[in-house]
Amino acid sequence: MDTFVDQQGSELAFNVMDQFCPSRVVLQRIGDKWTPLVFQALKQGVLRFSELRSAIGGVTPKVLTQTLRSLERDGLVSRTVYAEVPPRVEYRLTELGVSLLEPLDAVRAWAETHAGSVLTSRDAFDDA
Amino acid sequence: MDTFVDQQGSELAFNVMDQFCPSRVVLQRIGDKWTPLVFQALKQGVLRFSELRSAIGGVTPKVLTQTLRSLERDGLVSRTVYAEVPPRVEYRLTELGVSLLEPLDAVRAWAETHAGSVLTSRDAFDDA
DNA sequence: CAGCATCCTAAACGATACTG
DNA sequence: CAGTATCGTTTAGGATGCTG
């Protein structure tokens, strides 16, 4: 288990409940708007930029690029450029990325399974 | 499995990769900035507003209220008001909320376990 | 105690157009 | 093909002060 030094100078184990713990930043990174969708797309293996773009409905090139750069920076996705014309760029999950696949996939599956219940609850709440 | 009607009028199973699928909204709701932290706090059982607030470092009352209202609306958290002076309000996970606890907890655990690796990768990327 | 009201900023996101 | 550049919008989130 890693540790960090908090505001009081104490050395503490990583804990998302601490306002200044780096793990909270990481948690929010992997829970952003597009990351779970990129992971879902890359579950099947290697994809090119345009393939990712069409796999993820509604994502613009700018935002997809930003998301992929962040994931690359965080060591979750690797980017391979082939010196061809036209250019070809391939994205795949790193080993670290693969380790995150199962947790993110569980959340995605929950969303798809229970979206109906949530929407029903939402309607009932709004009627009241 | 629930279904929804997409832009072409077809009836499809819930799928977060579809831009117009309601499950995507649900996914983004449960992956927002504070929801995973509220769940982590409520894992232990019932908490009052002020207890939640101090359990989640750095959250302001306004944002915590907003988050809790959304979770209540979505049927994930229940809110109980006691007619006392001073007022007492208790929050707890609903049955639906409990079903989401395990997936969210897995993501939280991943963040705490691998935050060190992510930060290391980030530093290396920024040096290059 | 548990919030609500108000104002404000930062940043994420999106639309469009263009390029090596 | 795989982006970048620029601009504009939206909205989450924060600071502060007040109330039943």
From TrEMBL, chains A, B:
InterPro entries: HTH_HxlR, WH-like_DNA-bd_sf, WH_DNA-bd_sf
GO molecular function: DNA binding
Domain of life: Bacteria
The protein, known as: Transcriptional regulator
Domain HTH hxlR-type: 21-119
Source organism per UniProt: Galactobacter caseinivorans
UniProt keywords, alphabetically: DNA-binding, Transcription, Transcription regulation
Pfam families (alphabetical): HxlR
